[in-house]
Amino acid sequence: MNIFECHNYEDLSKKAADIIAETVRQKPDAVLGLATGGTPEGVYRELVRLHKTEGLSFKNITTINLDEYAGISSEDPNSYHHYMNTHLFQHIDSEKNRHFLPDGKAEDVEAECERYDRLIDSLGGADIQLLGIGQNGHIGFNEPGTSFKSRTHSVELNEQTRQANARYFPSIDDVPKKAITMGIETILSSKRIVLIASGKSKAAAVKTLLDGKISEECPASALHLHPHVSVLIDKEAASLRH
Ligand code: F6R
């Protein structure tokens, strides 16, 4: 695991975007595993800038997202599909029919999870997977206690995660209670992983990830089992390590 302590959020976002851009330059038909949430917004801004001002083309990429809320459609402004359109897809030249997310509206959720895993397998896994981290160490929506052997599955969101995500919804009651997420094993099937963490609220999770033991109580600690992981943190996220 390579750890990069960045000066600030902007620096972290640029470094993560550069790693993704390099992957696309080397392999124009790369499969990019993407994340949503507050932390990756700067990475997407920088990728859009690289596309608009430096000619970086995403024409032949495929994207697979980590997760999606259950019970809301892809057009819902709170869906992760909508987030991806707003922050990235509508600003670059990638092909709409190669943007994949779990279908939150699927009637047969189990079949949808299997379909998503088969899709990821058929693509050969992500060439690079971008991850954020929850305050409780979750990755994707894999909450503490999730098996490291998990594949794409449906989850009940815990209260801390719903509270953390409530900022995007009119009220906490509007935050979905369920989601579909890639499992830990699915995430580990990526060829390369980049985890980004910014701000004081992530400092405890970052310390457990980097200095604690490998345990299903900290889902992100599974990343120690992967051979090619970069962890990019800013000074605040690193503050409990020193
Ligand atoms: C998002 C995801 C989550 C977030 C995590 C951190 O697709 O899978 O694991 O990465 O909750 O979210 P932010 O960046 O909003 O703090």
TrEMBL record:
Question: What's the source species for this entry?
Answer: Bacillus atrophaeus (strain 1942)
Q: Catalyses which reaction?
A: alpha-D-glucosamine 6-phosphate + H2O = beta-D-fructose 6-phosphate + NH4(+)
What this protein is called in its record is Glucosamine-6-phosphate deaminase
State the similarity comment. Belongs to the glucosamine/galactosamine-6-phosphate isomerase family. NagB subfamily.
Could you tell me the EC number(s) of this protein? 3.5.99.6
- Positions annotated as active site in the UniProt record: D67, N136, H138, E143
Q: What class of enzyme is it?
A: hydrolase
Q: Which UniProt keywords apply?
A: Carbohydrate metabolism, Hydrolase
